[in-house]
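Reopening this ticket.

The earlier resolution said the output was attached, but the attachment link was broken on my side. Pasting everything inline this time so it's all in one place.
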Amino acid sequence: MALHNFPLAPASAPGYTAVMNGKDVRIPDDQIQGATELLEEAPGPEPLENVPLDQRYEALFKGLVQHGSDVVMILEADGRVRFCGPSARSLLGYAPEDIEGRDFFALLGSGNAAEQQAMFSSNLAAEYPTFSASFSIYRADGQELPVEAAASNYLHNPDIEGILLTLRDVTKQKKAEERALFYEYFDPLTKLPNRESFTRDVDRNITIATNRGRVFGIMALGLDRFKLVNDMYGTKTGDEVLKCSAEALRNSFRNDDIVSRYRGDKFFVLFPDIKSQDHIKEIIAKARAAFIDPFRIGLGQELRLSASMGVAFFPNDGRDAAELVRNAETALYMAKESGRDGYRLFDARLNGELLERQRIESDLGQAIGEQRFEPFFQPKVDRQGFIVGAEALVRWRLASGEIKGPAAFIDVAERSGNIDRIGSQVILKTCLLAATWSDQGLPEIPISINLSPRQFGQESLVDDIAAIIESTGVDPRRLEFEITESGIMTNERESIRKLLELKKLGAAISIDDFGTGYSSFSKLKDYPVDTVKMDKSFIDPLPSDRKASIIASAIVDLAHTLSFTVVAEGVENHAQLEFLDTIFCDQFQGYLFSRPVPEPEFRRLLSQGTTLLPRLA
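Inline output:
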């Protein structure tokens, strides 16, 4: 589109007036340039209707571009900037001519460019007349600027033949949203997560602990004689004591532990993974250590405080957040009744559980020697329910014939170091079975094998796997090794080296339980990863939970942008499957199709070649 300079209809000499964003904007004479012979300034007002309509529109567009606060651009279909308005100077720090001719998406930086360019291209391909997005763009000084972008597709308009794009600075709105979000989930006094946030964290950890057979704990902690502090020194000092207590508690615990101000002088702490009775003692000691030093309350005064504690554990002491919190508070009240600076466990049966763990550890050694660990197989299916892969999951077959799942022994195996030998048995037996299926003419589907963080940390892991591949004759291209986010992040450089070596063998790599650890797509893009498995904790609330739906959709979109395959694990009903299908998830795994089954049963399913998708009643 040619941008002609036409004068605006005079309102009062000298100069002209344009209406922008509902306000009159005065344009001086020296800023009016163009074909003045088409419309000469008269000493008195001239009716606007005398000016041709197309000239008025072009003049108005020029006024908006020249004097509006938003940046106006015209892009080619490939994202190159053909025209940039002068507002780029104030908003982005660039002269328009410094932007014109450049790739617009290069201004976004590596974190946003690929995603936004993919969305831009898909909207053009769908021929949407208008579309919008929110992202950050880099100013000339290197600062990130949050903007809202609105695009109108005029590629088929012969006067424009481009995409009209406006960028609006939304820094103030973003800051307001961040403040509102902060106060929704955080206590304004101590800056700790509040009651609602803590309850959500407990619910999330219940899902994770249930899936992985873990035990986690929550502690209710109340300041001793805090009412006396308020009565003697006033509520302002009381607030200072609460802030000091919050900081002391936060510094006492691990980053993984969640410290929350629940209400009044009561704090709650969540401990994601309780390993042993010694771990519990360590937690209590850390809580007490937070109150060893006196708090300074101003004017050189110091105040010594103590705290009482009550602890409850999942799953023994409650099956949901409300029950766990209630039982932890009950234990706290019992501790306070016994005197200051004490603690109580709501359930004393943890000692019995510890003895049971010791018995399991003893049995594991014998079971490893007798080769009693074997893989069960859970199919991975496509949208029609046909088997496209499987995951090998360890099971312990007792001498009596009883089968024990991983929740009964994996944690003990990890702590005792037996997980290494158990993992080697499962890899060997899985490779032997996969090679046998090939010999029998069964479909050569890929088989996923889990590597625990401890097993993945073995120096000889890759060599051991290479030896198994050679001895069994299995095609390594049929193998996919699953490792959790935390397993990679423990030693990132060493992990990447091992992943690359596994890929050199011909195997594929999958990130298991994605979203529950520390990684992000900005990290994963640098890893030699083929598949991302969306954790069951994201699948369970679908499709009714709006936030879970947004997160799941974002994971799939971004994974596809990075050329990853996405597997949804834990699919249990048709509603979840239908939603996941609408967001183009690639593969599905869960009880809706099949539980993990012994090798003979899985071989039968594989040979039948029929869909595993159950019919709706």
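Reporter confirms the inline version is readable. The longest strand covers residues 144-154. Confidence is low (pLDDT under 50) at residues 1-26, 31-43.
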